Amino acid sequence: MSDLIKLLPESVANQIAAGEVVQRPASVVKELLENAVDAGATKITLIIKDAGRMLVQVIDNGKGMSDTDARMSFERHATSKITTADDLFQIHTLGFRGEALASIAAVAQVEMKTRQTDEELGTKINIEGSKFISQEACTCDAGTSIAVKNLFFNIPVRRNFLKSNTQELKHIVEEFTKVALINPGIHFVLYNNDAKLYDLLPESFKQRIVNLVNKSYKEKLIAIESETEQIKISGFVCKPEFAKKSKTSEQYFFVNNRFVRHQYLRHAVESTYQELLPAEMYPMFFIKIDIVPSEVDVNIHPTKTEVNFQDSRTLYAILKAAIRKAFGMFSMRVPSMDFDVNPDFEALDLSGSRPVVSPAINTDPNYNPFEGMRGEKKTTTDEWKELYNGINREYDKRQEEVTLPLPEYENMSELNIGKSGFNLSEHFLQYKNKYIISTIDKGIIIIDQERAHERVLYEECLDKLDSGIAVSQIDMFPETITFSYDECIIINDNKETFEKFGFKLEKLGQSNYVISAHPASIATDEVKNFFMTLLSNLKDENERLLGNINRTIAKVSARKRCIKRGTVLHEDEMRAIATGLFGCKISDNDTSGNPTYAIIDMDAVSNFL
């Protein structure tokens, strides 16, 4: 029998290894930007064309490489940053230039120009799919320029799996944001198809957040700071009133200047807000953690975005304490407003320019509180009894309204609900302001009023969106809202759908929009909150990637407008919800898959009697 195990060709092995690091154009951006930072650059320019498919180029003014180092940088496992295995646990830099370039060169056409400051000529290298094409001397600026062209040209299947240009550009901007945020002292520039998206001059960390993420954040951030012998925590968290619906929106951890994801630390932040935020609201944060490298392992994931800490519990406690301290300092700085304070005391002149006069108490010695009551008819005991009798009669009347007699099916007036497969009684009662109870031909039905109404509104809204029917209300005083770059992409991509839903959006500058009209079903004072909630859902859910934005809009609209638990309903309102539910295409579940109703079979009821 012939041998089955064979050694893979180097080109195939390189492509497999590259798959761990290079998943999309944004992966290339991440690796090249981090290498530029490690090279000591003070200015880094990122140039993108065709969402990275055609070109990803990073130009830096760092220290550059010699001709030998330039050639070696494309060899796998070649690096200047580690020499022994122990060095893996003492890493201060971001990436290994040799590892990144070798992976990228395996799946793209790469051209690199590099020159050291003290050299007159630089080096130009061309590589295609791990195949070395040429190396020659050239004239170029000090630093390094790496142009990655035609990504996945030799793996068309991988190229076909890339998303739309808008989605790929969104991922690129996310990676650019992560690197630019934690390096505010570096001048970053981003071009997309020759249009300049960002030009970020060196600045403070807070100013970089404002200029890069959202200009409206200037007044929304609270500084945090804590330091021990081995750990230093700094950065910003948002004020509770500016939390967002999105679970991952503007949540950044940086460990030793590297962006990381860490669910345990995220829980530390969110649990600190637990009593300050309503359900389904999440805080924004931009937190830097500087820790002794030997206390953290950054090598558990190929992209180094996941880390392990030797003492996570201590870090968890320190982080929570830092945020609580920041909240305490913020509360001390915020002036309290007391509506019970007498304005006369607030306006007292304590400068000493006027003499202090003791307050005087004025009384009327002739005032008699019982005057005018003489000769009036006294209230008798019988009248008090009559008053209570009236209350009792009203109580008995109310009891009659909510009492549901046991059904007699042969005599009952029933409403036939064809899609549900059973007959629904015309009588309804409400239990604990949460559930609608009625009878059907096979038992008792209990309807969750919030879930049922959400389903009804969802299908109504979806039908209107699919048919293009929308009723808009023009805003007398249109509001200008500043959005992040990700949000602007969503708006630009789906502006037509938003308008079909009833919104009228007008762009004002690079990141501002004016909402001049909104759906008539939404209250004017709820427009901004509703629209921001909608954007957060579109950022988080996969439905937009599948093109079903109508479903997402209908879902958000239904959730915001539906009758909530705890709302008292009249019988006709209960009837409307019930009949509307069983007129839906899907009546068994709400938009999250939760059951809308339950049925108690009459046999089960009989077992209790």
Q: Features of this protein?
A:
609 residues, alpha+beta, Heat Shock Protein 90, Ribosomal Protein S5, domain 2, Ribosomal Protein S8, Chain: A, domain 1, eight-stranded mixed β-sheet, 17 helices, 24 strands, 34% helix, 23% strand
What's this, in brief?
This protein is α+β, with helices and mostly antiparallel strands and 609 residues long.
Q: Catalogue the unreliable spans.
A: 332-354, 373-381, 383-419, 542-547
What is the CA-CA span between the terminal residues?
77 Å
According to DSSP, the number of beta strands is: 24
- So how many helices? 17
Q: Using the coordinates shown, work out and report the CATH topology of the largest domain.
A: Ribosomal Protein S8, Chain: A, domain 1
Gyration radius, in Å: 34 Å
CATH H-level homologous superfamily name of the largest domain: MutL, C-terminal domain, regulatory subdomain
* Shape, principal axes of CA atoms: elongated
Describe the structure.
- This protein is of the alpha+beta class.
- It folds into three domains: about 10-200, Heat Shock Protein 90, CATH 3.30.565.10; about 205-330, Ribosomal Protein S5, domain 2 (2-Layer Sandwich), CATH 3.30.230.10; about 410-609, Ribosomal Protein S8, Chain: A, domain 1.
- Helices cover about 35% and strands about 25% of the residues.
- The protein contains 17 helices and 24 strands.
- The strands form six sheets. An eight-stranded mixed β-sheet has the order 5-4-3-6-2-1-7-8.
- Helix 6 (about 165-180) packs antiparallel against helix 7 (about 205-210) and helix 12 packs across helix 16 (about 570-580).
- It is elongated and about 95 Å long.
- It starts with 9 loop residues before the first helix and ends with a helix.
- The model is unreliable at about 330-355, about 375-380, about 385-420 and about 540-545 (pLDDT under 50).
